[in-house]
Amino acid sequence: QVQLVESGGGLVQAGGSLRLSCVVSGSIFAINFMGWYRQAPGNERELVAVITNGGGLNYADSVKGRFTISRDNAKNTMHLQMNSLKPEDTAVYYCNIKTNFGRDYWGQGTQVTVSS
Question: Residue 113: which H helix or E strand, with range?
Fold first, then answer.
């Protein structure tokens, strides 16, 4: 059974940093994308950052230059380093894996709150 478990969220002041981690357990075949999404109250879930199976990176305009996505294949872990955090970054952050076969895996989410 595949499980994605996020950690690293919390409360931080504006300008601070957090590092989110997503540990993947179970076997997933034909991974296409691994990424982070976020959802703020009253908003739709939005893409934050994605890393393709070939190592390509893509970021939402709102986080470019501040967030960095990475993965450690040996530890089955994905990270999101978030620097220069802003109050508008406050949301529940979810890790996600999409496969070439149309499967979509989600973690349970971790809360990030940035105070002004």
Answer: strand 110-115
